[in-house]
Specification:
The protein is an alpha/beta fold. It folds into 2 domains: 2-227, Rossmann fold (3-Layer(aba) Sandwich), CATH 3.40.50; 232-300, Alpha-Beta Plaits (2-Layer Sandwich), CATH 3.30.70.100. The chain has helices at 45-52, 77-82, 98-108, 113-126, 142-154, 172-187, 199-203, 223-230, 243-251, 276-288, 303-315; strands at 5-16, 19-25, 28-30, 34-38, 60-65, 68-69, 83-86, 160-164, 191-196, 208-213, 216-222, 233-239, 256-261, 267-272, 293-300. It has a 6-stranded mixed β-sheet, with helices on both faces. Strands 1, 2, 3, 5 and 6 form a 5-stranded antiparallel β-sheet that branches. A 4-stranded antiparallel β-sheet has the order 13-14-12-15, covered by helices on one side. The longest helix is centred in the middle third of the chain and has 16 residues, at 172-187. The protein is elongated and about 75 Å long. It starts with a strand and ends with a helix. The chain binds adenosine-5'-triphosphate. Residues 7-239 form the ABC transporter domain. InterPro entries: AAA+_ATPase, ABC_transporter-like_ATP-bd, P-loop_NTPase. This is ABC transporter ATP-binding protein. It holds the Pfam family ABC_tran.
Amino acid sequence: MMNDWAIATYGLTKRFEGHIAVNEIDLKIKSGEVYGLIGPNGAGKTTLIRMLAAAEEPTKGEIYINGDRLLRDDSNPLQKKRLGYLPDDFPLYDDLTVWDYLEYFARLYNLNPSVRRRRLQEVLELVQLENKRKSIISTLSRGMKQRLSLARTIIHEPILLLLDEPVSGLDPLARQQFRQIIKILQEAGMTILISSHVLSDLAELCTSVGIMELGFLVESASLSELYQRLSRQQIILGTLGKMEILQQALRQNAFVETWEMMPERDRLKVNFTGEKQDCADLLRSLILADIPLTEFHCIQEDLETIFLKLGHQQAS
Ligand SMILES: Nc1ncnc2c1ncn2[C@@H]1O[C@H](COP(=O)(O)OP(=O)(O)OP(=O)(O)O)[C@@H](O)[C@H]1O
């Protein structure tokens, strides 16, 4: 059912003068998800988001927002109210105060005066700019300006947010502040699509991830599914004894695939195909073999590694 999806596209395509920027994309995003759209420069992320925000006319294909067809005419004004779009080149009016800037947009959305006041206070609190309400925008830091842009994007209480590279150019602290705000918005029930070419920005935030390459959506899945499908179990092992003896014992375990020596030379990173019980069995067997272990630590390959593998698969 189309209604189950906050966003659903069918064969969505954008062609610019013979060049295809977005190619036959069937994107599905459930309500309440934080969906990370990842891809290198020029992959088509901005073009896709602009079409979802009704800022760009698709060459072909259809877009449904909460089950309603998105068209770039005035046939469905409710849809505009449901959407909040933060473009990558966000415009700010440097000479205005923070309050006047937000009020200007609240008026554009026809919020009546009492709602406007309440809403301005709410969003300023959310983006932690209450104490800057009288400041001129040109005096704000880049991180504050980006939070102000986000405040403007949600002033009309949309239920779907489209954020195009919102953290690019921000320092680690500003990125973290931005992520915290996104988490609050998700908890409030918003569906959020957020693009980046920096995976680590998204790994902590997203519930699902899509990867774009050369206009195609080459992967789209929940994070848990990706972990399950692609992330290998690894075990870090340390010993006080001879490495060869540990390696000999590892060779006898059917779930040990390969290993690599860690830089400290007294530790190994083992690629392991078994389940939790098999890890426990390996640990028991090493102890029974009298190997003086200093460390036995199970980890999962992180998202960065998974995506590098995926990129490699796509390229090969
Ligand atoms: N208005 C336009 N006219 C012609 N070509 C365009 C236009 N907009 C985008 N393109 C081209 O479409 C392709 C996809 O661009 P897009 O900006 O959507 O990618 P992106 O993944 O957002 O990249 P980035 O990470 O650099 O922002 C690029 O080759 C770009 O040059």
